[in-house]
Amino acid sequence: MKGFKKMALLHPSDRPREKLKTRGSEALNLTELLAILIGTGIKGMDVLELAENLLRRFGAKGLPSLSFEALSTQKGIGVARASVLLAAIELGKRLFCKEEDDIMPIVDGPESVYGLTRDLSKHKKEHFVALYLNAKNRVLKQETISIGSLFATIVHPREVFAPALSVNAAAVVLAHNHPSGDPEPSPEDKALTRRLAEAGKLMGVEVLDHLVIGKKGYVSFREKNWL
After folding, report:
1. For the segment 186-224, what is each residue's pLDDT rounded down to a tens digit?
2. How far is CA 88 from CA 37, 60, 61, 116, 161, in A?
3. In what order do the strands lie in the sheet with 218-220?
């Protein structure tokens, strides 16, 4: 985003729409492409500035994960422009990411979850992570929810389910490590899992499993029929 100029300072032939028309869409940078989708500026801020602000705040990779509410409440965006932006992002996914399912890891049981989270066993503090899945059990996002002490970590349901809603996850799989090396779940682990499963039902996001990871293996709540 270096070299950014206000629209008024650009030669007419270098403005996004004219540039696209004469040189093709591949000649435009991310700010210019986003500016075309936004359409026009607002009082005191031209369309390139609006686009620049979005990219500076969220980054190109962060935009696709924004909810409608989060995007529409950004300065100068609103409902109509948020609709256009999210529709364009979704269209791009469907047209050009046909092999997305081949790239996104699939969770088909505790072993696959362990394969994605086994590195937690190396930590000297408790790390609590969540894997957010789509309807096909493909991983949309993995996020560290909490890092605790040597013996415990504190996890609140809103910290687990807010990211799930932001990526429209259908389900979530939980995992955390025991620095002691023993993967046997504690009474606190069981109570927390029950609480998160109940919250998930209310949110419409199923808690599929919870793995406790030790030095040489794991314990799955699903395999133990605790979920």
Report:
1. 999 999 999 999 999 999 999 999 999 999 899 999 999
2. 8, 13, 14, 31, 26
3. 139-147, 127-133, 171-177, 206-213, 218-220
Q: How far apart are CA 14 and CA 45, in angstroms?
A: 18
Please tell me the distance from the alpha carbon of residue 114 to that of residue 219, in angstroms, as a whole number: 10
How many Å separate Cα 136 from the centre of its chain?
Answer: 16
User: Could you tell me which of 182, 110, 169, 109 has the C-alpha nearest to residue 142?
Assistant: 169
pTM value surpassing 0.90:
no
Q: Scan for tokens 């799989």, then name that residue.
A: 173
Whether residue 74 contacts residue 49, with contact meaning beta carbons closer than 8 Å, is answered with no
Residues 160, 172: contact at Cβ < 8 Å? yes
Inter-CA distances, 70 with 73, 135, 166, 169, Å: 6, 23, 9, 16
Closest among 68, 25, 74, 23 to 51, alpha carbons compared: 74
Burial class (CB in 10 A: 0-12, 13-18, 19+), 101: exposed
